[in-house]
Amino acid sequence: MHSHDSVFKYIFFCNDILHLVVVIKSYIFESFYIATEKVKIEGFRQLIIFQSLSTNIDGFLLFFIDRVHFYILLFFSFISGQTAYDFLNRWTANKLGAVVVGIDYRLAPQYQFPVALEDVLSVVRFFLQDNILAKYGVDPSRICISGDSSGGTLAAEVTQLVQNDPEFKNKIKAQVLIYPGLQAVDVLMPSHRQNEHGPILSRDMAIKMGCLYLTKDKALAQAVRENQHMPHGSRHLFKLVNWSTLLPEKYRRNHIYTEPIIGKLNSSYPVLLDSRLSPLLVTDSQLEKLPLTYIITCEHDILRDDGLIYVSRLRNAAVNVSHDHIEDGIHGALFFMTSPFYLNVGIRISDKYINWLEENL
């Protein structure tokens, strides 16, 4: 039995009952005061806009990008009816008087990179228009992009792209990234080794899902498992994700750093060098342009080190960064904060998220 098994059981069953009751009452009470609007943009699948009925003009705009990666979670979502993300967006809209835009982007493997990114980017650009902000009573100086897991990846990518767009530069005040995946260069970081078997997101599952976002060629997944997937001409990027220098010492432990092996894969995937896939691959000068940032990482998460390294690099670039590390946290914790689980750590993460938004926007 893996050591994570006992941690996983502990996290699920040791919930704070009093906190649970308070949260359930909050969800039920606050959901009555939310208006929802479903819209489509240029044939886009669907957006859901959550807005408090008590929202006054000059509220803030929040884009929340979520993603359920796993087949097992898709089953759970049918059990639950309304998803945890729907609850979170309603709660955020009502508690903070915000306009929250939930983005339903197209999914791999049917739609591969960069379709999801383009979907999200088109929505953000649409809502950043002055007339649209005015329509929803949004203060244009209070706009935030947030997301969890691969939604956090997309949030980071979109924020970088918007900051480099002359038309929309500096329109984003803040970004919130919750246990995001931020690079596809090195898949043997300490967190990959420590959390190889999960909980929730195993190394093998992460590699399979990540590769399907790019191609159906199984050779890529095999090369990634062995950390031999990077193409020739990529070595200069390794310093941008080098955990032996960028990861805080307590997380390096006794692991020994070895560079990814280049040029072993017969097929070439230049997309692996693209910062639109791996936000950690942008230069320090590009990072300097980024807005106020809040990052949440979880100890028992294969993606932990991506977030930790981003925190280090953003601080080195003098970006204002807040960071919370959840010692008992697991990947996907937000998904489990509602029925039938009411996972305490998921509830705590949602509390931290909303409190940070309230204090900083």
From TrEMBL:
Keywords: Hydrolase. The keyword Hydrolase applies. The active site is at S149. SUPFAM superfamilies: alpha/beta-Hydrolases. InterPro entries: AB_hydrolase_3, AB_hydrolase_fold, GDXG_lipolytic_enzyme, Lipase_GDXG_put_SER_AS. Belongs to the 'GDXG' lipolytic enzyme family. This is Alpha/beta hydrolase fold-3 domain-containing protein.
